[in-house]
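Pipeline run #58 for the internal structure catalog. This entry was flagged by the ingest filter as a single-chain record with no existing model, so it goes straight to prediction. Upstream metadata was stripped on purpose; only the residue string is passed forward. Reviewer on rotation: M.T. Logging verbosity set to normal.
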Amino acid sequence: MVDTIAQALEQVPHRIANPELIPTQRYYDEAFLALEKEKLWPHMWQMACRLEEIPDVGDYTVYTILEHSVLMLNTQNGVKAFKNACRHRGVRLAHGPGHCGSEGLVCPFHGWRWNADGENTFVFGSQIFSDELLDRAEIDLAPVRVEFWAGCAFINFDDDAPSLREFLGPVANRMDARHADKLKMDWWCGTILPTNWKLAMEAFQEGYHTMQTHPQLFHVSPNATKSFGTRADGLPVNEDLDARQTIDMSVDFMAKLSEGMDGMVHKTEVAVLEKMRGMEVPEDPAIAGQMFYGRAYQEVTEDARQRGAPIFDLLKVAQSHEFHAVEFMFPHYFLLPMLGAMSSYRIRPLTAETCLFEIWSLVIRPEDEPYETPSEPTMLPYNSPNFPEIPRQDYYNLPLQQLGLHDIEHMRLSKINEGMLSNYQRLIDGYLAGLDRDLLTKAGQIVNSGFESPLLDIGF
């Protein structure tokens, strides 16, 4: 069996032979993208839409992945997914969010129609077709497998794939504890990056780049020196803070994170934290830091509940569930928790060297609070000043990295801080090699292990 796995992996072009070295051709080779199209994406659970995008029966939106398009439709029997193609001659039926009116979905080519349940209701000139061509199963919209988690609908083109819950593994429990299903959109933006889809994800799988790329965060992080030592100029950062400085810097960090992401830490949470600057503290800075977070969890929870938000008990969850500042759901979805709010990313390939990158700011708000929920992303140029500071800084680097990868053979990774990159890339190799489905599912559960994971044994 081991020999069989090794032999299969050896057939993968630009495979990862050394887990600390990633061949750069994986990020621009057209043949490698073609293999991903064939072997990876058709078997993946993909976050297709947030359920709040289509709240009412008849609402629909469209999810695209490479050449394929899926219609996400809120029917009388819940949200369903269908191939977004007329069963007559394949014309795309929808191109974005909308609502099935009295006519339902109408093909613009020959006028065939479907109702809000995906059932064909009209074939123009039906008498000119052979009876067997108009069998109900052949002319209703073609279904796509769909399952639900964290307030989202996920689709999979593979009817034999494991369930979504099994595919995700323990990360689902961690996010369930944080009420991910109750998150609502504050805003939703997207951009086309001149970057391979895998490269676009990797800036958000490690914090090693923070010192240089996000210095505004690094310099207000009480743990900066503990994590990475000194700055590039050799000077230590944030050493010898007393207890009061530790509290103030902790508030500063959360405020700067909120400002830089325009989410992740919500403005309502920052307002609570700002009131804690004058809290009584012990002399020991380490104990003061622990006290700050314990009280912050309590105060943020109480504030949200007083406003009517169905938030979880932050302190209880912090004690019972492992925390990661970034949670990755293979192959392309991220949730970034901190307190009660989260940021979220979804990345999709367009070409070998371009991708669609979407960002959400998500918050648990009072259920009766009026809010105009976006139904589609605000699309911006990747270098737009309208992006929050942190993604804007990353978007500056990523196109430069895409260009530079053509001039080196490998990226070299820290096995301690950049292992997450290698873990998911090796899982891609497993899919491209066609390894056993159960083996791949178990590997995926390991890969979904959270921010800055070290190199892990994923089973092959």
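catalog note: The domain at 50-156 is CATH 2.102.10.10 (Rieske Iron-sulfur Protein).
catalog note: DSSP finds 16 helices and 18 strands in the chain.
status: ready for reviewer M.T.
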